[in-house]
């Protein structure tokens, strides 16, 4: 028996059967995982299911291996390796039994080295390998090696093996974890989609309220613009009438000036008439008794000339007052026209601003309609997605 085999036997007697401990550990982990449903955040690792098996020298006889397997009936296999502990071959227990339990098996094989029965191209993986990748590599093996153990190494040395049962347990846990992650993802997606649907409904409601307000604002804008247009038209009419009044005042001033000129002429004629009447009175006085009647007429003419001059003076005074008032009215009219014109320009600017406001409100209303429609459509799609998530999940 080889030195490696003797050392292994001593270790087994001192510490117990490691293969049995590996089986118990795997079984306990399986039961806990089954009862607990698995933990989506705790992926199984090859180290958790690693079974310790003997590492034998390639020249160990088949008789020695058979005795070892009989002493440890739970050993799934033995590993063939070098002196440094590096594995390179695998002997499965069932295959080994079938060959040695034949009619002439003992006579033919007991004395031969175990490497004659070993698979010298086993699947060897690092103990820290990704479990999903390791399982896929095991599934990709030829059918003749499908039930063989997978050898695990740690820094190139034998760490243990994984049986097909261990791989199936790891695969089941991975699937359970993936299913739980899927359910968790679906649940999160369901919550997110539900929140999106509610938010989109709120957006649609807000957009609809904005649309209603925009329509109200549009009505107000149209009403305000209409009223401003009416006021602006009234201002235009007032300006037109005031311009006409200003022209009439100008003609009035011109007529007053003409009348004043005529009054001055009348006053001059009255002065001349008075002077002629005075001269006539003097001549009548020279005529004596014969000129008395003419003297009476001359006196009447002088009296009439004085009255005419007085009336001309009164008319001139009145015309001066009229002219002054007319000029003041013209100045006030001119100032009023300027103010009303400025106000009309402000009204035009206000009307233009109402027009711009109307365009802006129309743009906002159009945008609100688009947002409302898009939000409604998106909310409907979100509702469809939520329903599909409900159908495809167990929590629905």
UniProtKB/TrEMBL annotation:
InterPro entries: CBS_dom_sf, Chemotax_Me-accpt_rcpt, MCPsignal_dom. It holds the Pfam family MCPsignal. Residues 1-47 are annotated as: Disordered. Residues 180-396 form the Methyl-accepting transducer domain. Keywords: Transducer. The keyword Endoplasmic reticulum does not apply. Belongs to the methyl-accepting chemotaxis (MCP) protein family. This is Methyl-accepting chemotaxis protein. It comes from Paenibacillus favisporus.
């Amino acid at each position: 028996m080889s030195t490696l085999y003797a050392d292994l036997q001593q270790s087994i007697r001192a510490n117990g059967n490691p293969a049995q401990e590996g089986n118990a550990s795997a079984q306990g982990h399986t039961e806990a995982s089954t009862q607990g449903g698995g933990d989506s955040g705790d992926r199984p690792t090859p180290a958790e299911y690693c079974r310790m098996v003997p590492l034998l020298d390639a020249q160990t006889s088949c008789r020695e291996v058979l005795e070892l397997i009989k002493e440890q009936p739970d050993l799934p296999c033995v590993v063939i390796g070098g002196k440094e502990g590096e594995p390179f071959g695998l002997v499965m227990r069932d295959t080994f039994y079938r060959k040695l339990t034949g009619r002439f098996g003992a006579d033919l094989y007991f004395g031969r080295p175990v490497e004659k029965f070993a698979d010298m191209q086993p699947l060897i993986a690092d103990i820290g390998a990704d479990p999903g990748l390791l399982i896929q590599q095991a599934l990709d093996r030829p059918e003749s090696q499908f039930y063989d153990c997978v050898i695990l190494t740690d820094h190139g040395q034998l760490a243990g093996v994984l049986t097909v049962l261990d791989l199936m347990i790891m695969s089941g846990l991975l699937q359970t974890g993936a299913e739980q992650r899927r359910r968790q993802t679906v649940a999160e997606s369901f919550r997110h989609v539900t929140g999106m649907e509610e938010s989109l409904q709120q957006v649609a409601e807000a957009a609809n309220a904005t649309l209603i307000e925009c329509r109200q604002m549009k009505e107000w804008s149209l009403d305000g613009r209409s009223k401003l247009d009416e006021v602006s038209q009234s201002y235009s009419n007032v300006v037109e009438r005031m311009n006409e009044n200003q022209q009439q005042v100008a003609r009035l001033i011109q007529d007053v000036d003409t009348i004043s000129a005529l009054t001055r002429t009348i006053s001059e004629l009255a002065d001349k008439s008075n002077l002629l009447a005075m001269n006539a009175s003097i001549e009548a006085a020279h005529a004596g008794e014969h000129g008395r009647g003419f003297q009476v007429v001359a006196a009447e003419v002088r009296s009439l000339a004085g009255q005419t001059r007085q009336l001309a003076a009164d008319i001139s005074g009145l015309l001066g007052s009229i002219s002054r008032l007319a000029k003041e009215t013209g100045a006030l009219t001119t100032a009023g026209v300027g103010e009303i014109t400025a106000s009309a320009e402000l009204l035009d600017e206000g009307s233009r601003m109402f027009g711009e406001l109307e365009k802006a409100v129309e743009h906002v209303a159009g945008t609100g309609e688009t947002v409302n429609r898009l939000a409604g459509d998106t909310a409907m799609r979100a509702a469809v997605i939520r329903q599909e998530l409900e159908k495809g999940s167990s929590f629905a």
